[in-house]
Specification:
five-stranded antiparallel β-sheet; extended; alpha+beta; four-stranded antiparallel β-sheet; 11 strands; 10 helices; 25% strand
Length: 302
């Protein structure tokens, strides 16, 4: 939209002392002629824009002119409100709601007809997550260590870390920080943390590398799986692996091929389907499911 482009041009001029029409044309993917018309429209709107000829010349706002540098379109405001509401969904305080009240007149509890993105970052475990988020956020702001019991798939342990980031990824919340046990940066899942406490000593901020949140890093795969699911659980396969992870045979059965990261999690996943799935590969998985099924029969068979 033209109004968005005009605001964008004005934002560039406020950030830079001088720019050029060709550069603006490149940024906004329009012709130089269109940029010249936009500059004329801004001048007619009362913005004192100068064009300077010659070497080192270009377009700039007149020296000494001051205005509010916060220029937001209605779409910009909707994006900001969507982000604030998403954070408010996991906040244990009223901070984000109060911030929304400052930015947007009227109650932050109300959704206008122009809002089109609603994000809820809370999980099914909201009551357990909220106090953890609040405590860790305070620890990060004040640079205090946190200690906690951690329940990992391999073993339980007690950890003390210098927290640096709260991260929402893969539908879960994590804290990223320097682990004093491993002497390295680690990512910890909040749902696996218990008995969290915050120390009083202030730690010295380290140079923090960006956490590698790529799917391949966290879920490297390595276990190739082939299985056939009955048609009535097709929705689950699509929900968890997408619509392109399988083919259908003539009977409508779902022929799945994919990779899995952790063998124990894979066994647990397959067991949730009961008799709705037949695993063909790997043999190790077939054997383990047969063993587990036998143990279940022994336990409940009479």
């Amino acid at each position: 939209m033209k109004i968005d482009r005009l605001i964008g041009i004005l934002s560039v001029l406020l950030r830079q002392e001088v720019t050029t029409a060709p550069k603006l044309a490149e940024i906004f993917e329009v012709s130089r002629r269109t940029i010249n018309r936009d500059i004329e429209d801004l001048c007619r709107a009362g913005i004192p824009i100068q064009t300077i000829q010659g070497t080192g010349g270009g377009i700039r706002i007149m020296e000494g002119y001051a205005m509010d540098r916060t220029l937001l379109t209605s779409k910009d405001m909707q994006m900001i409100m969507a982000g604030l509401r998403s954070l408010d969904s996991v906040s244990g305080s009223q901070y984000y709601g109060q911030l929304m009240e400052k930015i947007k007149p009227g109650s932050s509890d109300l959704i206008s007809g122009r809002d089109f993105i609603l994000i809820d970052l809370s999980s099914w475990y909201r009551e357990a997550i909220e106090p953890k988020l609040s405590l860790i956020q305070t620890a990060i702001e004040q640079r205090h260590e946190i200690s906690f019991d951690y329940y990992a798939p391999d073993k339980e342990s007690h950890r003390t870390i210098e927290p640096y980031f709260l991260i929402f990824k893969w539908s879960s919340w994590y804290v990223y920080g320097w682990c004093k046990t491993r002497e390295d940066f680690r990512l910890f899942k909040l749902n696996r943390m218990a008995e969290i406490s915050c120390g009083q000593a202030v730690y010295e901020v380290r140079k923090v590398p960006a956490p590698d949140l790529s799917v391949k890093k966290r879920f490297p795969g390595g276990i190739y799986v082939e299985a056939v699911f009955t048609p009535d659980v097709k929705w689950r396969v699509v929900e968890e692996y997408g619509p392109y992870c399988f083919t259908e045979d003539k009977a409508g059965n779902i022929c799945f091929k994919g990779e899995y990261t952790d063998f124990e999690s894979l066994v647990s996943w397959m067991l949730t389907f009961g008799d709705k799935v037949t695993v063909t590969e790997p043999k190790k998985l077939r054997d383990e499911l047969f063993k587990r099924a036998g143990n279940i029969v022994k336990k409940y068979g009479g």
